[in-house]
Amino acid sequence: MKKRVGPLLAVILLAACGHTPPSPSTRLPASPLPDFSAVARQTLPAVVNIYALKEEPRPSLSELIHANLGMYDALSTWVRGRYKTRYVESDAGSGFIINKRGYILTNYHVVAGADRIIVRTAHGGEHEQDARLLGSDPASDVALLKITADYRHHVLPLGNSDTLEPGEWVFAVGNPYGIGKTFTVGVVSAVKRGGLGLIEMEDFIQTDAAIGPGGSGGPLVNINGEAVGINTAVQSGGAGIAFAVPVNIAAAIMVPLAAGKQIRRGTLGLTGEELTPEAARHLRVEGGEGVLVTAILRGGPAHSAGIQLNDVITAFNGEKITRYAQLKKSVLSLPPGMRVKITVVRERKINTVKAVLGEIKIKKS
């Protein structure tokens, strides 16, 4: 039988071999595994499934006749079709209820071009009803729906997306692949992501919380159970890279959307890119930050204000500009017709010009 080595003898043996056991003060404290079930219980009931339907084209009488149905069958089918509309599913996604009046936030691309929208809620068991599209904003990929008000509606409160920092816990909730409500866990990977070419107003929250097809429009939730984003897109071929529209962007336009008003957004009529260190040295831009103007729309606001190619925009309406996505968001946040001040660096000289914003035209699907 083997004898056990006593604690004192073990310490002596380790010391003799050149190993010093860690003292109690240097040991890492044991931390319990995180439990997010409370956040899931608070969030899941407020999330809904959304089905966008397109009206099925009705065949003409001549098409039915040429389908060899026979004159009587063709005429009967054509008459019945005049009184009954058929729909086919064009898209499916998610959304979340934000108040007891039945208002639902989702992505614009989930319901774009739909002739009918059906929402499946969870209160009192699975329940489907038609939803009304109150308004949408393609530039930010936000849409506001309404279903019948019900005191039983579970509501998801809105948080403040401007306070998010990389490393914070976040949770994505939706209906990926139509398999049912799913709660995934991750962290904020980055904020203010732009330049992806997905939508006009890019200021995304990046997360590694899993978001699958059908999860678009669902909430990105913080540790307090508040919606801080609208899950929007997944990086193609990039595992663990997903993007959400900050909820503050949606909150800023909800009142006009609820009133059925069109969201009008400004434009400068230019394209730019972040200033590289090499370009900053060549152009001698103090501080080395700004947006290099690479294209200008002839006759547009920037052109009329005297902005030229290779100008470097360093401030917009008093706000320091370091990224092109930041400049676009600032411009798009203002209405057309507004007069703005723009600071540009040209040939090592700082100039301030004034421009009147035009209106960006985004074709709705």
Explained architecture:
The chain has 365 residues and is an alpha+beta fold. It has three domains: 42-146, Thrombin, subunit H; 161-258, Trypsin-like serine proteases (Thrombin, subunit H, Beta Barrel); 266-359, PDZ domain (Pdz3 Domain), CATH 2.30.42.10. Helix content is 20%, strand content 34%. The chain contains nine helices and 20 strands. It has a six-stranded antiparallel beta barrel. Strands 7-8-9-12-11-10 form a six-stranded antiparallel barrel. The N and C termini lie far apart (80 Å).
Fold-level CATH name of the largest domain = Thrombin, subunit H
Give the termini distance in whole angstroms.
80 Å
Instruction: Please tally the β strands and state the result.
Output: 20
**Anisotropy-based shape:** globular
* CATH homologous superfamily label of the largest domain: Trypsin-like serine proteases
The secondary-structure element order is HHEHHEEHEEEEEEEEEHEEHEHEEHEEE
Task: Give me the CATH architecture of the largest domain, please.
Answer: Beta Barrel
Please give the radius of gyration in angstroms.
28 Å
Strand content: 25-35%
Number of domains: 3
Structural class: alpha+beta
Stretches where pLDDT is under 50 for at least 5 consecutive residues are 1-5, 7-16
Described by strand count, sense and barrel closure, the largest sheet is: 6 strands, antiparallel, barrel
CATH class of the largest domain: Mainly Beta
Treating each run of at least 4 consecutive H or I residues as one helix, how many helices? 9
Q: Going across the biggest sheet, name each strand in turn.
A: 1-2-3-6-5-4
Please give the share of residues in helix.
Answer: 10-25%
Mean pLDDT: 85
